[in-house]
Input
Amino acid sequence: MSSIQNLFLKGRTLLGRIPHADPALESRLLLQKAAGLSEKEFLTSPDWPVPVRAERLFLKMVARRLARIPLCYLTGEKEFWSIPLVVFPGVFIPRPESELLVEKVLELSNKRDEVIVDIGTGSGNIAIALARELPRARIIGVDISRRALKAARLNAERYKTTSIVFSEGNAFYGLRKFATRSEADFIVSNPPYVSLAGWQGLEPEIRRFEPKRALVSGATGYEFIRRLIKGASFYLKPGGYLLFEIGQGQAGSASSLFDSRGWRDIRTYADIRGIPRVVAARKT
Output
């Protein structure tokens, strides 16, 4: 039987072939998953023998990763807001950039009995992070994908975030059962904002395995954002906030889509790399 250290080093070497990957991190996570090891066991017991069955599973997972299957689809988990979340193929993978949406809602919230709507909730990452930080809020997560909603409900059950309800539907069509006009204090979204041309330049992990409709808005990348602004103006309270994520270079065009008669305090916020990542606006 091979030791933990030997298998880790073998995996690290093989995974070094993947561009932009972190082979040491990925090898460790895959080995922990295959052998059922905790991080502490991995770090403190490098000479432990790994059962043959676990070794075979690890090498199989490494091979699948080399085929560019996303790491978190292999481990079944992705961390967001320091919360490990269930994800599986067909579910959009949460990105750390989206944590900025959570941060801005928390800054603007009055921490009372607010209604928050998450359009395109995916794995439920934003909704669950907000529910844990704002226990008095009522949160509605909407998604067109049944597969995504399955993951979202599993995650909500895992963390006992009973203040969230999930609804299936295309954007605001999924909201009609749970909210009325001018009821929401916040509408948040990580919408599809990739153009058709931009899709072609994305990494193979994204193009081959992640759901295209969660990423691609249309020819320009702004099609869904237009729908988002229009629908939010119906469901938000006067003074309520719309916040949504954007891609690099989209800040000016996205901000220009707001009608100044219906919106005020239109702002953009940059992520930790200094890239404008979130647009926020307040309904007049």
